[in-house]
Every structure is written in C-alpha cells, then in structure tokens.
Amino acid sequence: MRAFADRQLYPPVILAPMAGITDLPFRALVARFGAGLVVSEMIASQEMVQARPVARDKAELGLGIENTAVQLAGCDPYWMAEAARMLEARGARMIDINMGCPAKKVVSASGTGASGSALMREPDHALRLIEAVVSAVGVPVTLKTRLGWDDDSLNAPEIAQRAEAAGIAMITIHGRTRCQFYKGRADWAAIRAVRAAVRVPVIANGDIVDAASARAALAMSGADGLMVGRGARGRPWLLAGIAAAVHGGPRPHVPEGAALADLVAGHYEAMLGFYGRDLGLRVARKHLGWYMDHAGTDATLRREVLTAVEPAEILRLLPGAMTGQSARRKAA
Questions:
Q1: Which CATH architecture describes the domain 13-247?
Q2: Partner of 241 at 20 to 30 A CA spacing, among 47, 107, 166, 325?
C-alpha cells in the first residue's frame, strides 16, 4: 500500500464508519483482531465543538487503539476546522471528512446542513471544507465519498484530484452514487477512474463481505486497500480474516461455541459500561441480533435474548444462544 503522510497503513483493510455501530466498544473489538485502521461513527462538527454529549461519546478514542480515525461531517469551514483541532488534541491519528453519507437528514439543510454526499454537488464548497481541515491539523486528513450524486454526475475523479491538491492524504470511494443509497451492487470497476486520477492511496468500499469479494474489489478497482462496513456486523474478526487471505499473515481464530459466547458477553458488558445500563441495553440488541445471525440461534431463544431486560438474564442466555442450543433447555 502507498504511504500517506509519515505513516504506513497496514494491513490496508479498514473498518468503515457506520452510524450507531462503530462506537468505541466495537472499534476496540475489531482492532483487537487486527485491522489497519478503524474509523469512528460520523460526528457533526458543530456539535463536537459545542460539547454535545452524543458527539463527544462518538469521538471517544479509548486506550490501546492506536490506528483510529475520527470522521467529521459538516458544511461550515470554521466548525470543521475547530472540531478537527479538538480531535487531534484528543489523540485522533487521522481526521476523515464525510462526503459520502446519503441520509436525507445529512444532505438536507435541516440536518447537519448540506453535508455528506450533498457536497459532491458543490465541489467548490467541498474544497473549502477540505482546505480548512487540512490547514487546522498536523495529522493526515482523509476523504470518504461516493462515485457521484447520481448517474449523470459521476464526478468522483475530479473531486479526488482537487482534494489531493488540497492536501488530502487518502481517498475512500464507495462504489455507488448517493441516489443509489445502498441498493444494487457496488460498482468496483468505476473506482478505477479515481485510482487513475490521483497519486494518493485509494480505498475501495461497498459490498466487501469476505475474502472472495475483497479480491474481486481489488482486482476490478485497482485500489490500494479495502474498507469493510456492513459485513463486519456480528463478525468483528472479518477484517483480520480478509487481511490474512488477501495480504498474507496469520489467520485470526474465528470463535465458535463457548469462545463466541465469551466474546459476545465481553462486548455486551463493554457496551453497558460505555453507555450505562438503560442506553446500553438498547444499543446492544442490534449487535446481539447480528451475533445470533452468525451463530444460527434458535428463533425462540433469539426472541428471549432480544426481549430480556435484565443484563444478568441476557448473560445467562448467551452461552446457549451462541452454541446453537435449543430454547428448550434447563434453567440455569
């Protein structure tokens, strides 16, 4: 993989920023298995500077996670620059600028402003944001975007060239337009035009869920690395497995049975510790559901786990849920 700034990102397999998913407990777990970089949830820059608790929680870096990027969204150069300075001071190794989120509340003026993928329709304004962030910090600044707003405006190569000239150190391209949201298939081949337009590392993103899709994405895009998102839900070891399959090195041990139950219990308790009991219970349900999808949990037992309201009861049910036991079991 090409170097950026004064660091070498290796293995070049990156955890994508995912709202409500890539919080500190999950990033720590993925990093423990092995990933070149983990990226925080998208953080609204103005909310970060104004000390909104939700934004500060999303930006929490934790201890022992060295390769962490924090992703910023916004539409005002001042707030973007100030938030980037704060994040660098808190220990962020990189700042990633969001130009790819397709959510209506992000791309409309009623949310965080015309930010996210809406910036692809205003390249001049996008460049002002990029320049403000790059000039504000000493750490590498990266960019995550899409192929374009729609099929009639596939301007990612042009934006990438201008971003590189402004000091962007790495560019991640999700192989869809904003108007596709997450429908259809990611067009990895279309990323090749961005790869040809710039010298900085280009990362391919979209529909990378296993070693086979990782190899295909690299071959079709010509990218320098990969970003993995939804495929990692319930499989925090996935990035390490892809890195081993594509780039060599030891394969991670994929936990099963009792080992998986222990891992999930640890993740569950970390979420309760990070969010507090009530919010932690709500946040944890989706992660528990994804783990049970992977484990093939019996439907009745799955329902019990997801409707339990006491942490002790959930922890009691997890060994059976992760080892494929039937819901008809003796009470512990």
A1: Alpha-Beta Barrel (3.20)
A2: 325
